[in-house]
């Protein structure tokens, strides 16, 4: 009786181990493709972080510059290209904002979409 139980355990163990070896794969499987996608994700994340950092640097430079009202001014960055949008109270501030943005290191171009709003009294 004991021999029959042992043979049953051996058969069960063999049935458990056999499928795991049958599904063993070599190094050229889809896990390599998945890791390739994972490797590109931090790159996109790093690009977005660099864009945010450049936009923040431009905003900081404008805030430190004299004569620019930052209340309704927005700065967007994408690959060194800066887009200024929103509105300012005086037309001189439109040109001043563009000049300050161009002077920031890392800025390759400036798309100035600022408009002038009328101050109500």
TrEMBL record:
It comes from the Bacteria. This is BON domain-containing protein. Coiled coil: none annotated. PROSITE patterns: BON. Residues 50-118 form the BON domain. Residues 1-24 form the signal peptide. Keywords: Signal.
